[in-house]
Amino acid sequence: MEGDKGFKWGVVLGLALLGFSRSVGWALNKGLSFPLLSSYTESPLVKGTILALEGLIGIIIPPLLGYYSDTLRSKHGRRRPFVMMGGVLAGIAALFIYTAYALGIPLAWFALSLAFFYFSMHLYTAQYRALMPDTVESGQRGQASGIITLFEWAGNLFLFGLAGLLIAKAVAETGEKEGIQALAQTPYLKIPFLVTALFLIGAALFVYFVVREPESPEVEENESLGSYLKSIVENRDFLKFYTAQTLWWMSFEFIGVFLYGILAFILYGSAGEENIKAVTSLGLYLMALFNVTVLIGALPGGIIYDKLGRRLSIILGGVIFAIPLLWGWFITTKAEITIALGIAGVGWGILMAASYPVIGDLLTRFEKEAFTGRYYGFFEATRSLPVLLAGIIGGAVVQLAGNNYRVLFPLGAVLVLLAMPMVWMMKNLEAKGVER
């Protein structure tokens, strides 16, 4: 990055396109996997455990391959080979999920197709994240993060909107009231999977052939895998941030994984298969709305991060996200759910834009910029661990509460509020001139 201080619009927009495609893939999983699994089982614990495979894979693959990408020396770069391989495999895996469901294979094999998708997506998670701090100066990372976050959540919005439109068409054509069941009776079910595959493969190839990485930095003394993991525990700022991120992502995943169950319980009093399928269209609409308000929060969140301070932007986003979740325990109507998730989305957008650059800035502060792959690999692991924990713990809590999905709202609020003091106590978070 030496000698190139201008904002790299081409690189940032290329990474934004890659983020858009990956979000389309994750939105496909969030929007359709739970309803499709409901065709196999009504158990919240079984469904949560299967969806938690994403978290299990995510806590293993990104830290290891992120570490390896730091050490890779090739004419194709350190990150781009992983991006191309992972994106192509993830696109193929999306097609496998549809094929598995369409063929009516047993639950175990359908779960395996989901696991293949999660594995492929995480092959290049750390490398995608590391490319931004690799190519953007520290003082400009908030703006870059805001743009990338905007595109990421636009990808979610695109897929949820597409799925909602297709479900509406399927319901009109079949007369079936249950959205996902109507979709399954038409050729429209394959469209989200085909579109997702196209974006994943296309964006990965675009970044591989068009975006150019900076030269690999010279590393006098490379960290061993053990030393790298040990340094995270020993450095209190890294440890506090990773712990805080685990908490606020678990809060998010409680809602993200079990949204259909929450809606069915609040609106119909139970989360049986018929009720879950009945709220599929509403769930996709609310996911789309949430993503719209995330977009509203993302760009200001990036600006606040660069201009007003790291702590302020993260804590502001966390508090705005948590307040509607506290209200969630008292919600009884569709309108109240809509308002709560809309407000929460603004807070989440600020939080996402403000938290993404933190690891890159800490590495700059501690002169470890050559190691972005491994530290962003661990960054992604602390985003994936909550999927594992939320799926299993959330499913178990709901089951112990008599299938009362509403309990996940206040539980999520408590977790994100617990994370805020950890961010405030970080000693090296602020940039020069923006001290606490």
From TrEMBL:
For molecular function, the Gene Ontology terms on record are: transmembrane transporter activity
- PROSITE patterns listed in its UniProt record: MFS (PS50850)
Query: Keywords in UniProt for this one?
Result: Membrane, Transmembrane, Transmembrane helix
Domain Major facilitator superfamily (MFS) profile: where?
A: 245-436
**Nucleotide-binding is among the record's keywords:** no
Query: InterPro entries from the xrefs?
Result: MFS_dom (IPR020846), MFS_trans_sf (IPR036259)
Transmembrane helix as UniProt keyword: yes
Task: Tell me where on the tree of life, at the top rank, the source sits.
Answer: Archaea
SUPFAM superfamilies the record matches: MFS general substrate transporter (SSF103473)
Could you list the residue ranges that cross the membrane?
A: 49-69, 81-101, 147-171, 191-211, 246-270, 282-305, 312-331, 337-363, 384-401, 407-426
Q: What is this protein called?
A: Transporter
Biological source species:
Thermococcus profundus
